[in-house]
Write a structure and sequence with these properties.
Rossmann fold, 10 strands, binds adenosine-5'-triphosphate, binds magnesium ion
């Protein structure tokens, strides 16, 4: 795992984990992201906030090109992942997906065992039985699920609670050892206790991973975000540190959304 970056005064600024410059995305004629430019620092949590339909999922899905397969989906502009162009430097999409893992709003476990779910993304790697067991344990521990399932790794994943299934999805994403973890409303379909567990997990994971997370829960963003981006109608209204975005110095539109949970854009 890479070490934390120190930024010395006078030294060049560290390369952001993710950088978008004038990025636009369309579904057919519908332009849903409009000249978006943003920067996501490494090993931190960046929350994407904004009203429904503002383009948050489209933005996050563009970071590992999961929308590429959609007919009519087109993009324009630059997306860099650790300085590499997401569009041209990753001809091998599996290399991009290995770097940029994704977890969706609704836990999507496969109809196989807990262990097989964890190993799904590495199924083509030649791993010994011992290496597989070690990877299953490490990934489940990192996703704070090991305690719950260590005695039933061969049980069907579908038998887990929804909160556990979401942590299993996080474990499956971690097993591929990505640098970046994209979470699209990871707590939207779980109960408040499981949501807090996942929040605690996210705060722990940011020591080793760059996390970009979509959430509708403004208070959740206030608890877990190091940085926040406020998106409205496909445009970035404001981005900055959590302290800035939740302060009086933020733009009035940002304040209205974050404080009153109302969008007047
Ligand atoms: N597969 C698709 N085909 C056509 N239009 C789409 C598709 N997916 C999303 N859109 C449209 O793109 C716009 C942005 O959608 P997106 O899902 O990115 O918004 P969002 O901010 O994630 O919303 P929510 O908070 O409701 O999840 C919306 O107008 C939506 O209808
Ligand atoms: Mg969405």
């Amino acid at each position: 795992m890479t070490q934390p970056q120190l930024h010395l005064v006078g030294a060049p600024a560290p390369i952001p984990a993710i950088e978008l410059r004038n990025f636009s995305a369309c579904y057919g004629d519908l332009r849903v992201l409009k000249d978006v430019s943003l920067s996501v620092p490494a090993r931190s949590v960046t929350c994407l906030l904004g009203p429904s339909g503002s383009g948050k999922s489209t933005l996050i899905r563009s970071l590992n090109r999961i929308n590429d397969a959609l007919p009519g989906f087109t993009t324009n502009g630059q997306v860099d992942i650790h300085g590499e162009c997401c569009m041209t430097d990753f001809n091998d999409i599996t290399r991009l997906r290995a770097k940029v893992g994704m977890v969706f709003q609704t836990p999507c476990v496969f109809p196989c065992s807990i262990a097989q779910n964890v190993l799904f993304g590495v199924r083509n790697r030649k791993l010994s039985k011992i290496e597989k067991s070690a990877l299953v344990e490490k990934s489940l521990r990192s996703a704070a699920l090991w305690q719950d399932v260590s005695d039933r790794l061969d049980a069907p994943a579908g038998a887990l609670s929804v909160g556990q299934q979401q942590r299993l999805c996080i474990a499956r994403a971690l097993a591929v050892t990505p640098d970046i973890l994209l979470l699209d409303e990871p707590t939207a379909s779980v109960d408040p206790v499981s949501a807090r567990n996942i929040e605690a997990l996210i705060s722990e994971l940011k020591k080793d991973y760059t996390i970009v997370m979509v959430t509708h829960d403004v208070r959740q963003a206030g608890r877990v975000a190091d940085h926040a981006i406020f998106l409205c109608d496909g445009e970035i209204i404001e981005q900055g540190t959590r302290d800035h975005m939740f302060s009086k110095a933020a733009l009035p539109k940002t304040r209205t959304y974050l404080l009153e949970e109302f969008c007047d854009c």
